[in-house]
Amino acid sequence: MNKETAIFAGGCFWCMVHPFDQQPGIISVVSGYTGGHVPNPTYEQVCSETTGHTETVEITFDADVISYKELVSIYWTVADPTDATGQFQDRGDSYRPVIYYANEEQKEIAENSKNELANSGAYDEPIVTQIQPSKEFYVAEDYHQDFYKKNPERFEMEERGGRAEFMEKHQK
């Protein structure tokens, strides 16, 4: 097994888990926070928009089964790359779209993929998703983990807030 990690921010982490969790080669998808300046932030602190963190998912995957490039491609179908101020019904800095890279190879893959997307003509607006180096990842509180499994009705309601329609429109 060739274990690697990927970290993506694209709105509420509740809705970011499911699309990745369903892929072959995924070992785990954990909800959490990264990119900020406060150690061990709580959900309430992140929601206050004062810590600099984004809600993120940390994906541990077997790179022999699914590549980082494939994960980035999935990311583009679940996060609106043209909205720098949040995602769908989720507004604010903690919901901005960011690809956090762990090394130069991931950075290059993410940047190339972003450029391809920008040149594809798929969007009328500019691609504003940030590509930044990974910072420490903090695991979110237990009640945020596997939210779609624990709270299927609430998950469906959150999905209908715009993400499901976006995914349908942009799925290949």
From TrEMBL:
Source domain of life: Bacteria
InterPro entries the record matches: Met_Sox_Rdtase_MsrA_dom, Met_Sox_Rdtase_MsrA_sf
Domain Peptide methionine sulphoxide reductase MsrA intervals: 5-155
Record has Lyase as a keyword: no
List of catalytic residues: 12
Pfam families on file: PMSR
An MF annotation (GO) of this entry: peptide-methionine (S)-S-oxide reductase activity
Gene3D superfamilies in the cross-refs: Peptide methionine sulphoxide reductase MsrA
Keyword Membrane annotated: no
Enzyme class: oxidoreductase
UniProt catalytic activity: L-methionyl-[protein] + [thioredoxin]-disulfide + H2O = L-methionyl-(S)-S-oxide-[protein] + [thioredoxin]-dithiol; [thioredoxin]-disulfide + L-methionine + H2O = L-methionine (S)-S-oxide + [thioredoxin]-dithiol
Enzyme Commission no: 1.8.4.11
This protein's UniProt keywords: Oxidoreductase
Similarity remark: Belongs to the MsrA Met sulfoxide reductase family.
Biological role: Has an important function as a repair enzyme for proteins that have been inactivated by oxidation. Catalyzes the reversible oxidation-reduction of methionine sulfoxide in proteins to methionine.
Descriptive protein name: Peptide methionine sulfoxide reductase MsrA
Organism name: Companilactobacillus mishanensis
Gene for this chain: msrA
